[in-house]
Amino acid sequence: MASPGELISAMAATLGLSEATIFQFDRQLAEAGLRSKSGRGRSAARVTANDAANLLIAIAATPLSGAGPKDAAFTCATFGALPVQTAPPSSEVFAQLGLPCLTGLPQRHNAITALTTLIAGTVQGEEFGIPVEGKLTRLDAKFAVEFLGPEPRMHLVGDATLGEPGHGPFARLMYFRRMEQKHASTESDLAQQRMVTFRTIRAVANAIR
Question: Rounded to 5 degrees, what angle do the CA atoms 61, 194, 7 make?
């Protein structure tokens, strides 16, 4: 398994951010108890799938105006705690797309559980793909982890339709808190979105494998 430094390097290379920026997020999470830590040198912490999920949420869910390492723990806690709002059968479709790990998610779970499970499954060799002539073909861009705001939401999306509804399986798990009816009319018209594809999930998994 990787050290925190190795995970930082892998994530920086995949996301196109500097290692210094990723380090600031990682440090904030470590100080908040959201990343494994112990000793130095050979006894340094070995990061887990949950550590990687926390770091990915903290980075990808920051405001689009720029990275905010000082808010990493708050961002991670806010998005990670979002409850699932999708009917259970939606997760089962992911098995057809090479990710059976997501079919075992509890009926009631949150975003950090789902993302940790996804990374752990990929560590074990699961790969997202679209069915082509009975075989799964890798197409990273058709899988997305989406972070939306300002009302926090996270989606896991696997799309094998290739732009044609009904052409192939489509699966989406949505995580958000339901707004009370009295606030529905004041919902913001401003929307921001960040996303990563399965390329990032694989890179993180390879780093901690």
Answer: 60
Q: Looking at residue 191, what DSSP letter applies?
A: -
Residue 111 CA to residue 115 CA, distance in Å, equals 6
How many domains is the chain built from?
Answer: 1
Tell me the C-alpha to C-alpha distance, in Å, between residue 68 and each of 25, 73, 74, 195.
Answer: 8, 10, 10, 17
> How does pLDDT run across 125-153, given as a tens digit for each residue?
999 999 988 899 999 999 999 999 888 99
Helical (H) or strand (E) element with 85: none
Q: Which of 20, 75, 24 is nearest to 53 (CA)?
A: 75
Q: Which amino acid is at 40?
A: R
The Cα-based distances of 37 to 60, 118, 143 in angstroms read 22, 22, 31
DSSP letter at 65?
A: T
Q: Which domain holds residue 105?
A: 4-208
Dist CA 208 CA 84 (whole Å):
26
